[in-house]
Structure formats: C-alpha cells, structure tokens
TrEMBL record, chain A:
EC annotation from Swiss-Prot or TrEMBL: 1.17.1.4
Name of this chain's protein: Xanthine dehydrogenase molybdopterin binding subunit
Transmembrane region(s): none
This protein's UniProt keywords: 2Fe-2S, Iron, Iron-sulfur, Metal-binding, Molybdenum, Oxidoreductase
Cofactor(s) needed: Mo-molybdopterin cytosine dinucleotide; Mo-molybdopterin; [2Fe-2S] cluster; FAD
GO MF assignments: 2 iron, 2 sulfur cluster binding; iron ion binding; molybdenum ion binding; xanthine dehydrogenase activity
Taxonomic lineage: Bacteria, Pseudomonadati, Pseudomonadota, Gammaproteobacteria, Alteromonadales
UniProt domain Aldehyde oxidase/xanthine dehydrogenase a/b hammerhead: residue ranges: 31-138
Automatic annotation (TrEMBL), chain B:
Gene that encodes it: xdhA
Gene3D superfamilies: 3.10.20.30, 3.30.465.10, [2Fe-2S]-binding domain (1.10.150.120), CO dehydrogenase flavoprotein, C-terminal domain (3.30.390.50), Uridine Diphospho-n-acetylenolpyruvylglucosamine Reductase, domain 2 (3.30.43.10)
Domain FAD-binding PCMH-type: 185-358
GO molecular function, one term: iron ion binding
Identification of the protein by name: Xanthine dehydrogenase small subunit
Entries under NCBIfam families matching the protein: xanthine_xdhA
Enzyme Commission number(s) of this protein: 1.17.1.4
Pfam families, alphabetized: CO_deh_flav_C (PF03450), FAD_binding_5 (PF00941), Fer2 (PF00111), Fer2_2 (PF01799)
Top-rank lineage group of the source organism: Bacteria
Alphabetized InterPro entries for the sequence: 2Fe-2S-bd, 2Fe-2S-bd_dom_sf, 2Fe-2S_ferredoxin-like_sf, 2Fe-2S_ferredoxin-type, 2Fe2S_fd_BS, Ald_Oxase/xanthine_DH-like, Beta-grasp_dom_sf, CO_DH_flav_C
Annotated keywords: FAD, Flavoprotein, Iron, Metal-binding, Oxidoreductase, Ubiquinone
Domain 2Fe-2S ferredoxin-type, residue spans: 1-87
SMART domains to which the protein is assigned, alphabetical: CO_deh_flav_C (SM01092)
PANTHER family reported for this sequence: XANTHINE DEHYDROGENASE
Length: 800, 479
C-alpha cells in the first residue's frame, strides 16, 4: 500500500480573492531567482542563432551569397526559406508572413537568412556578412502612397447607424479634423527569445517568451512538417509582452526549431535589442479623419469617420485591430447618425501587430479630438461637451455597430472624479495662472474611457484549465493563460484558493504548457483572468463536487452533498468538519479522481461582421482620468503635474495588482502620446532603433501627484466573481494628458482654437502647435487692426 | 591579472578578451542569471550591478552602480562585485528587496534585479532620501510595467531608516580582502593593459599603437556590444593616479581626465552650480559612475554633454604624451566630426576650467524629448559678462547644432556693448541664434526646431537673468 505524506497543519485560509496578495513571483523576482527563457540552464551543446536582415524596403531578391557567413568564425549552419521542410508562411490568421524572405523583400530589416554558431556573439557577427542582392522597387511608406496605389492588406470594413451624410450636409454646426497618430514600440524589457530542444525523432520542445504558446506550437509543427502532438511549448513567464509577443514571438521559435531540427542540437535565438526593434511590429500608426455635426449645445447629431490603420507589409492581426479602432471611435459618446469606415493600409514596413488596446486607443482618441473641437467651436468647456454626449437614455444608447450600452458607469464616475479632483476649481485657477504667466501655460482635461471586453473574433473567447490535487492536499493549477507580469497567475491562484478554501501557499500555478491545456487562445484582449479564471473555477467546482460527495457520504449524509462548504482549510457540513487535506487522502483511498480539466466560453457574444451589427463585447470596462500639465511656450517642454484616476475593475480580485495595471497602463499610454517617437527614414529604415533614440517614460516622468482609485462597483455581468478585465482599458486614460496639452496650448487663443497636435506630442510638436496657435491669433488680430485703429498691441505674440 | 571579489569570493582573471563585458562575464562565465540584459547599451539598467570600492586607507566602502553591459573588466579590479543574488541572507530578504515586494513594485520582474541594485546602492549612500533623491538614484533604470510609483514608494520606505545589512556587518572583512587584492604586483592582461602611471601609459601606447584607450567605457563599448566589432586590445586609463584628482588653483578648477564623473560632481557644482541641469541630466547615475570628463571630451560627440559648457567656460585641455604636456584651448580641440586635435601618442591629462568672476552670468540648458537619460536635441550654455548693465563679453557653447560642439562668435560680436536689459538685446540675440548654425534633421529633432529653440533659449536666458524677473520660465527646476 502507498504511504502518503502527512499533510501540513497550516491550512489557514488566506490569499482569498478581493485581497492584495503579492505577485506570486515577487520574492523570486527581487532575488534574481525568477527564470526567463535566457536564464534556463542550457542543455549541453546548446548553439546560438542570429538573423541576417535586408537593407532595402522593397524589391525582388536575385541572389543571396552566404559564403562569408559560412566562413565566419564559429558558424555551424545557415538556412534560408528554401531549407524549410514544411510551411514557409507563418501568418497567424492570413498568409503573408514568410518565415524568412521568400523571393522578395517587403520591409527594411526583413530577416532573409538565419545563422547558427557556437556563441550568440559569433552568430550575430556572422549574420552581418550576408550579401543579399535585391532589385529595389519604390517602397510604399506613407498612408497617402498606400491609398493612391490601393495597397491594402485586407478589405475595408464599414458600419454605422442612420444617415450620417444627409445629417452632416444639412447641419448648421459642424467641424472636421484629422489626426496622425504615431505607433509605439512595445519595449518589453526582455527581448524576443526562444530555446528549441530537439526530442526523440522529430519531436520538439520549445521554451519561448510568448503570449500564445498554442500558436507557436502550431507554427513550429507546420514549419517542421510534424503533427501538433509532437511539439511541446512551455512558457513560464515573459519579461513583458504588451501584445508584442502575441503573434510575433513565433518566428524566432520557428527559426530556432528549424535549426535545432537540422542539427539535432538545442538552439537558442535571442534577438539583440536593435534587431528586435527592426524586425518586430509595433502599435499601428493611424491617420484618421472626422466630420461631426452638433447642435448649439454641443450635442452630437452625426459623425462620419475614416480610420486608416497603417499595417505594414502583411495582415498579421490588422483586420481585428482596425475593427477595434472602429469599435472605439465613439469612446463613451453617442455619435448620432454614424458612418465609420476602416481601411487597412499596406506599407513596406514591418508588420504592425497587437499592442495593449489593440487599435482601441487609436480610435478612441478621435472621439476626444472631436469633443475638443466642438468645445472650442461652441465656447463650452470640454468637460461640459463630454458630459452632454455620454451614452444614456436621453442621448442614445446604441453604438455605431448596433450594440446597446447597458450599465453605463461613466456619468457617475465622471461626477465622482470632477468632485474629488475639483475640476471646476482647478479650471478657474488655471485660467487665472495662465493670465499672469506669459511663458509657462497650464492645461487641464478630464477624459473618460469605455472599452469593450472580449476578443472580436468569437472563437477565441474560450479557455481551458487543468487542476490536480495531490495527496498532501497541495493543488497544482494549469491554465491556458500566460504570465507576463500582469499578475494573472496570482489571481488564478487566489481563485483556486478561494474555491477550495485553502491557503494560497497550497496552490501552485505552473508554467503554461501545450501538453496540459491544448488549443488555447492568446493571453490578450485583457481577457486572461476573465476566461482562464472561469475555466479554473469550473475545474475546481468539479473537484469540489467529488470531494463534497465523498465527505457527505463519509458522515452518512450523502443527500446533503450540495451543502458542503470549503473554507479556512476545512470542509464542513452543518456541525461536521474535516481538514481539506485529510479529505483529499480519504478521497484518494476511496478511488476518487483528484484531477480534472475545466472549460469556459464567454456568453452573449453575437456580432455579425457582414451587417456590422450586433454584440462583439461581453461588457464594457470604464475609467475616468484627469490630468494637469504645464508647457513651456519657448521650448515645447512640458510636465504632467498631476493625475487623478477613478477606474472600474468591477469587484477587484486583487486591488494592488489592479492598481498596478492601471498605473502602469497610464504611464505607458502617456509615453505613447508624448515621448515615444518612432521614426523611419526616407529609405524605410527605422532610425529610432534602440533605447538611446526611442524614449519610453523614465522614473522622473511619473507625476508627483498620481492618485488612482478603484470605482468598486461589481460587474453586472456574470464574470469571475463579478470582476472586470484591467489589462488594456486604463491605457487610454492617458488621452487626458494629450487633451490637457492641447488645453494648455489653446489657452494662447483664449480657448478659441483647437490646436492641431499629432501624436506623439513631443516637445517639438508642442512648440509647433504653440507657434501655429500664436500666429493664427496674430493674423486674426491684424485683420481686426486693419479694420480698427485700436489694435491689440499685446496679442499673444508677447509669449514667444 | 585582474583581481576582484565576487561578493566575498576572490577571483582572478589573467586572460580574457579585451572586449569582454562584465555582463557577459557574469552570465556566460559565472552562470549567474539574476542580472539581465535589456539593451546592451547602458540605456535600460536591467544589468545594473554594484561595485563596492575601498577608500584610500581601506577604512570604508563606497557602493556605486554600474551598467555591467557596457563595463570592461578593468573596471572591477580591486573592487567587490555585488550581484542581486548576494543581497538576501538565506531566506531573509534584504530590506530593499522586502520593500519592493511589500509595495507591489515588480510586475514582469525583468527590470527588477537592476532596480534592486540601484536601491541597494542608495541604501548605502543616502539615508532618508527624499523623492528627488530616489529619482536621481533610479534615473538609469527603466520599467515598462509599473509606471514607477510603487518603486518610488518602496525605495523611500526601505531607505528611510537603513539598518546595518550584512554588507555593513562584513565591511572590515571585505576591506581586508580588498587590501590583499591591491598588492603592488602588475595588473592587467595582455589584451587589457592597465598601466599605473604616465610613463607606463606612454610605453603601452608606443608598444601597442593599434590599441584604443578606454576610461569609463560607456561610449567605446558600444562598438562591440552594438556594432559587434572585435576589439583585440585596450589600454585602460582607470588606474593611473596622475589622471585622477580634482584640484583648485587660484583661478581654475583642474579636473583629472579619468575621474568618474560622480567623483568630480561635488567640486564642479560647488564652483559652477549653474551647471546642475546639465550634470544631473548627464545620462544616468550608473553612467556617471563610470564615464569620465576626459572620455566625454575625447570622443568629440557633436552633442557632447559637457563640451558646450566647457566651450562657454573657455576651458583648456591639457594633453600629454608621457614626455611633454601642452595646453589646447577647448575651442581648438574639436577639429571635425568625432575628430580632435590630439596627436598620435597623446592623451587628455586634465581639463582646466577658469572660475567665473562676479559679473559673469552662466546658465546651461538641455532640450530633449525625455528629461532623464536622453541625448540633447539642443544643448546651450551661455556665459555672459555684464558690467554696469552693459554686455562686455558673451561666451557660449552649443551641442546638437553641427558636426562638433560649437561656440558662437557672432552672438558676442552682435551684442557686446548692448544694455542687457534692453528689448534689443533680446531680439538681436534671438535673431543671431536662429540663423547661427545649420543643424540637420535627425531622430531627435528637425533642424527647424533646433534653430527656433536656440533663439528661444536666449529668450529664456535673457528673462531669467533680468534682475527684476518674476516670470516663470521652467516646467521643471533643476537647480
């Protein structure tokens, strides 16, 4: 007979949901003991790979001479697309992404060959020695060129309500605008990396930093031409993902696997930072335009919007990304009759990809741009215009894509924040400050966020889990989600601890493995906890039912099994109780299975893309933020002085982790809109190619006053413990910074001009907007002077 | 031989590639994987480690952070290398580690070891730091997840009342071990030469004409970590006492070329407090812990960090070849893009900066996309002599405007004799500066922006130095 371990007695139930448990890896992270892929002990004889890149943006390859590469020190193998035994295209949804360049160059820096050497340094040096002869063609680098050449990676999509054209044509009050919106480098601190370890025959084990292990598994199997069941992907943690490792981690895993397969050696491919920045896609730049009609009170009556996503050379996820931009062009506002068109422009750039918000931010900022313009036109305060246009019974509750907005929290949240952060008092004091300060100007803005939660591709809204209880009462949990720092495993651990009523230390959430939970969705769309949490809960409920039945039978009340509870390390029924771990052992001896899988699919989703009508989202997450900034009208330098946020995470599973997500997303969003400036030269080469030339927020950019509060109202929908998704929505709270910068510039015109401020709003762009606003005021003053001899000698020119 | 301690372990290296970085040594040779590579260029701080070095008489240790990814091995000689793995005692976390856990200051955790090391160095150098001290100490560490707020809170909490940790408790043992390392035997290796005086240096250069000189390595190392070049031989300037020191003469401050920037900062700021903005925004703290004034001048970057200030201050470069020294005015030192007036076999020995007189007004301005750890789009330093309200002389230095750091004689010629308070002084200065240079469009800014800002920085200077100015001119005060 098997002898079981004596269970430990410290089965107190801490670590439940709704408490601020520490990140499950925090103690290892601060000791340098949390392993990332590059930290895994390398199998003996591990070799290292590097990729050789193109140095033009578009053209036909007529020769690849790799002699010097092969002759380079330490080189063991070199591969091109011709060496791929299986599929050559690794496009995640649509074709268009060759593993290595396939006859043509599609962007500057496209990987053309891969080299294997005894060390990473030697492989990288060798990779510089390839001679790729290309017949160069004119590259498409701007949205204008893409439109002119009808270059699209996917067909356009359109939806709307009513008849926006007619409404706009007949409107008395209307404004138009356009905005160029910059992209964003993910700048995960851990760059792309994969380790491929060949197993028996054609089997392959992959350790990768990926948000989508199942897709890596599928693509590796296709590239190697083996069945999925022979490829295992193991993913313990990423050093940041942010969307950049959703589809675009797969290429490096596939190349490593190809080289490992050919050479029967473990192969690691870790991209140096500047290579990573050249070869991986970014947040899509957009170039959008609107026409909006409104009444004298600033209430929107009709909206027409053109959304242009600049997708790079291939579709990647751009179809869904531009869709999500379109779905968020309303933000929290009823747009009246609406017509939203979305184009997917093809350019000879790296294929842009998922990034926190997934197109949502680039759509949402247009709604706020419209509101600002209406405010300057009508002379109303922007917050007044915002409030007048929020979804509601009197304004309207149907989105441009036909979904009813239910449970709208924005009116209450805005009211709470404008009171708490004293919007109107600060508005007055800022106006007073600006009147006496000719150089430094302050700006203020309070903007809302309404963000739809669910993958808009319906089939992705499913998740699986695998839960084992061992005979000492410890529990191992596996699920399809990946940990990239967001605290998913911590929340999952809390959910399992909560279900079984045991201490969090009894739960071990393991690495994400394709052999434990198959066919998983990416950890993306903020849905990690919503979906995997429910799947884990589902598995826990199955196991609890078995244990409850065992316990009820044991105490002679099998009919009351439904009333058994699991709390504080105990299993209880009326006055009877038993330690959880003891019951586990009893169940084992009763031959009750202590392992099960769990499953979840998100309910209520019904969007018909053919008609552009329906419900793409299970629910909306909301947030409001207020930012105050100062700008220097001589240099364009600025400072975010103060930020107040109230954000809706439903009934928070872990307040500390949720606040961490909100703060981190806000600062990342602020970086997107301010200092993070992607630049390509005329040849299509990325010139902001490292951390010296591409500036993410540093520690001094964190506002001194940075107050974040959770709204605390539970999700009206049946999500996991009525919490809400939090990964992406707070990113867009940073739009308040952009609006506040514009507000400060607009003060130069006494709030009559809505300045054009493309993003990122670098000091240079701010200064340009200052100059443009000042010149417009001068021109106006001069035209007045020409009619009146009492010209205003002290026009806004005083400030510059 | 290069000798140092890894925590308390004595280590000797007698053959290693000259271009081996400390990070490669830690991760690839010592298989210690807690220290991470984020950029291999000294821009992110994930690789931050701490070097504890003894003072001259081996009675105390000074803890400073460096970016191990751009540090060459000569920099660790005679020091204690402390890694993130060394901080906790068994299961007990170091106070800075515990504080970061308690404040939920790690998310993905990849930047965390670097932050921990910067917090640890602050723990040992500044008790009860304020928020600005914390920002200063962590300016070289990037985090993409948290937004920094919990890290700031954790650092403030941990350093509020720093109790003795095991490093402090073991300090006398560490000092004894370090003293044993620094015996009088030869140091360096055949590929990484480490001369200990100017005669040895001259000889090393003579015998190895192909070898590059290296001091802080914060710029040179990019040639092997980023451009992947092989560097077979280096001559380190870090252990030559004649290149250290920072002395005050009656009329000037004389700075040894190979002093790490942090070591000269107190004296530099004492005499030129107006340079605070430039100095505190000079890269990041770990870079300033390694980088030297000599290296900054010798690499002749067009942006330059300090050269615009040195030009405005009429500094003199003292060059040496082991036999003779000569004085080169800084305005004659930069002869072309990354080219200097140094002859073959010459190195920068010292930099002499004349003190200001009471009637000189000095200000240094740095304009960049990001306030911290960014390279200037434009740097402008104005040094204006005003007697009885009349401009007597203008000496100005600029970075980011041409192939080399520049002065601007036209500004002087156009404004000498003008009353400083006059509107004409403002307008003429702006006009001159808006067309004084022909900068280029690059990744940091357009030429047009640079020209506009140059003019506007004169506006800022003019306003800020009016005796009765009450107008706010800055969104951030760096002084």
């Amino acid at each position: 007979m098997r002898k079981l371990i004596t269970p430990s007695s410290q089965d107190k139930s801490t670590g439940r949901v709704h408490t601020s448990e520490k990140h499950e890896s925090a103690i290892r992270q601060v000791q340098g003991a949390a392993n990332y892929v590059d930290d895994i002990t390398e199998p003996q004889g591990t070799l290292h790979a590097a990729v050789g890149l193109s140095d033009c943006a578009r053209g036909r390859i007529f020769a690849i001479n790799l002699d010097d590469v092969r002759a380079s020190e330490g080189v063991i193998d070199v591969v091109t697309i011709d060496d791929v035994p299986g599929h050559k295209d690794i496009g995640p949804v649509f074709k268009g992404d060759p593993l290595l360049a396939d006859g043509e160059i599609k962007f500057f820096g496209q990987p053309v060959f891969a080299v294997l050497a005894s060390s990473a340094h030697l492989a990288r040096q060798a990779a510089l020695k390839g001679q790729i002869e290309v017949e160069c063609e004119d590259a498409i680098l701007t949205p204008k060129q893409a439109h002119e050449q009808q270059a699209f990676v996917r067909p356009m999509h359109r939806f709307g309500q009513g008849d926006a054209d007619t409404q706009l044509e007949n409107a008395v009050h209307k404004v138009s605008g356009s905005l160029n919106i910059g992209g964003q480098e993910h700048m995960y601190l851990e760059g792309q990396v994969s380790l491929a370890v060949p197993d028996e025959e054609d089997r392959m084990n992959i350790y990768t930093s990926s948000q989508h292990p199942s897709e890596v598994q599928k693509l590796v199997s296709e590239v190697l031409n083996v069945r999925l069941h022979r490829v295992l992907v193991d993913m313990r943690r990423m050093g940041g993902g942010f969307g950049g490792k959703e589809t675009q981690a797969a290429q490096w895993a596939c190349i490593a696997a190809l080289l490992a397969h050919r050479n029967r050696q473990a192969v690691k491919l870790r991209l140096p930072r500047f290579v990573d920045m050249h070869v991986t896609g970014k947040r899509h730049p957009f170039s959008n335009a609107f026409d909006v009609a409104f009444n004298a009170e600033g209430k929107i009556t009709a909206t027409r919007m053109e959304i242009n996503g600049i997708c790079g050379h291939s579709p990647d996820l751009s179809d869904a990304i531009v869709d999500r931009a379109m779905f968020h062009a309303d933000n929290g506002y009823f747009l009246g009759d609406s017509d939203i068109v979305g184009h997917r422009l093809q350019t000879n750039m790296v294929s842009h990809t998922a990034y926190r918000g997934f197109g949502g931010p680039q759509g949402m900022i247009m709604a706020e741009a419209m509101i600002d313009k209406i405010a300057r036109y009508t002379g109303l305060d922007p917050l007044t215009v915002r409030k007048r246009n929020l979804y509601g019974e009197t304004t309207g509750s149907k989105t441009p894509y036909g979904m009813e907005v239910e449970h709208n929290l924005l009116p209450d949240m805005i009211e709470a924040l404008e009171t708490k952060a004293q919007y109107w008092q600060r508005r007055e004091s800022i106006k007073a400050f600006n009147q006496t300060s000719p150089i430094i100007k302050k700006g203020l803005a309070l903007t809302p966020v309404k963000f739809g939660i669910s993958f808009t591709s319906k089939h992705l809204n499913q998740a699986g889990a695998l839960v084992h209880i061992y005979t000492d009462g410890s529990i191992q949990v596996n699920h399809g989600g990946t940990e990239m720092g967001q605290g998913l495993h911590t929340k999952i651990g809390q959910i399992a601890a909560n279900e079984f009523g045991v201490d969090l230390s009894m739960i071990e959430v393991t690495s994400t493995r394709t052999d434990k939970v198959p066919n998983t969705s990416p950890t993306a769309a903020s849905s990690g906890t919503d979906m995997n949490g429910k799947a884990v809960q589902n598995a826990c409920i199955t196991l609890k039912a078995r244990l409850a039945s065992c316990f009820a039978t044991k105490i002679g009340k099998p009919e009351l099994a439904n009333h058994v509870t699991f709390t504080d390390g105990l299993v209880r029924l009326n006055d009877e109780s038993m330690a959880f771990s003891e019951l586990v052992q009893a169940a084992y001896f009763e031959r009750i299975s202590l392992s099960t899988s769990g499953y979840y699919k998100t309910p209520k989703l019904a969007y018909n893309r053919e008609t552009g009508e329906g419900r793409p989202f299970f629910y909306f997450a909301y947030g409001v933020s207020m930012s105050e900034v100062s700008i220097d009208t001589l240099t364009g330098e600025y400072k975010v002085d103060s930020v107040d946020i109230i954000h809706d995470v439903g009934n928070s599973l872990n307040p500390a982790i949720d606040i961490g997500q909100i703060e981190g997303a806000f600062i990342q969003g602020m970086g997107w809109l301010t200092t993070e400036d992607l630049k390509w030269n005329d040849s299509g080469k990325l010139i902001s190619e490292n951390m010296a030339t591409y500036k993410i927020p540093a520690i001094g950019d964190t506002p001194v006053n940075f107050n974040v509060e959770l709204f605390g109202k539970e999700n009206a929908e049946d999500s996991i413990y009525h919490s809400k998704a939090v990964g992406e929505p707070p990113f867009m709270l940073a739009i308040s910074v952009w609006c506040a910068l514009k507000d400060a510039i607009s003060s130069l015109s006494n709030y009559t001009i809505d300045p054009q401020l493309d993003t990122p709003a670098t000091p240079e762009r701010v200064l340009n907007a200052v100059v443009a606003t000042t010149e417009a005021m001068q021109a106006e003053a001069e035209s007045k002077t020409s009619h009146s001899k009492y010209g205003d000698a002290f026009s806004a020119s005083e400030v510059s | 031989m290069i000798r140092f301690l890894i925590n308390q372990e004595h280590v000797e290296i007698d053959n290693a590639r000259a271009d081996l970085t400390l990070l490669q040594y830690i991760r690839e040779y010592k298989k210690q994987t807690g220290t991470k590579e984020g950029c291999a260029a000294g821009d992110c701080g994930a690789c931050t480690v701490v070097l504890a070095e003894p003072n001259a008489d081996y009675t105390s240790l000074h803890y400073r952070t460096v970016n191990s990814c751009i540090t060459v091995m000569s920099a660790v000689h005679g020091k204690q290398l402390i890694l993130v793995e060394h901080l906790s005692s068994g299961k007990k976390l170091h106070p800075v580690q515990q504080a970061l856990v308690d404040n939920h200051g790690s998310q993905c955790g990849f930047c965390t070891p670097g932050f921990i090391m910067s917090m640890f160095a602050l723990y040992h150098t500044n008790s009860a730091p304020n928020r600005d001290d914390v920002l200063y100490a962590l300016s070289g560490n990037l985090c993409r997840c948290t937004g920094y707020r919990p890290i700031i809170d954790a650092t403030l909490a941990a350093c509020e009342q720093p109790a003795d940790d095991h490093f402090t408790q073991n300090a006398s043992r560490t000092l004894a071990l370090l003293k044993d390392l620094n015996d009088d035997s030869e140091i360096g290796t055949t590929s990484l030469l480490m001369p200990q005086n100017r005669v040895e240096l001259a000889q090393a250069i003579r015998e190895n004409p192909e070898a590059k000189l290296v001091a802080g390595s914060t710029d040179l190392s990019l040639s092997f970590t980023q451009q992947l070049k092989n560097i077979d031989k280096l001559i380190s300037l870090s252990h030559i006492n004649e290149l250290k020191g920072c002395t005050e003469t009656q009329h000037s401050l004389v700075i040894g070329a190979a002093n790490p920037f942090m070591d000269i900062t107190p004296k530099l700021l004492a005499h030129f407090p107006q340079l605070a903005e430039l100095i505190t925004r000079f890269a990041s703290l770990p870079i300033r812990n390694q980088a030297t004034m000599g290296g900054n001048v010798a690499n002749a970057s067009p942006i330059g960090d300090m050269p615009p200030a040195l030009i405005a201050l009429n500094a003199v470069v003292i060059a040496d070849n082991g036999a003779d020294k000569r004085r080169i005015p800084i305005t004659e030192f930069f002869v072309g893009y990354r080219q200097t007036a140094l002859n073959t076999g010459e190195w920068i020995s010292h930099i002499e900066i004349p003190f200001l007189s009471d009637n000189q007004r000095l200000a240094a301005y740095k304009i960049s996309k990001r306030a911290e750890d960014d390279i200037s789009a434009v740097c402008a330093v104005f040094n204006v002599t005003i007697s009885d309200g009349i401009i007597e002389k203008i000496s100005a230095g600029f970075g980011g405007v041409a192939a080399t750091p520049q002065g601007c004689q036209a500004l002087n010629d156009g404004l000498v004799g003008e009353p400083f308070a006059s509107k004409g002084c403002l307008e003429t200065g702006k006009k001159i500066l808006s067309t004084a240079f022909s900068p280029i469009d690059d990744v940091r800014a357009t030429a047009a922006y640079r020209n506009t800002v140059l003019a506007n920085l004169w506006h800022r200077f003019w306003l800020e130095h009016q005796t009765d100015n009450t107008i706010a001119t800055r969104v951030v005060n760096h002084a």
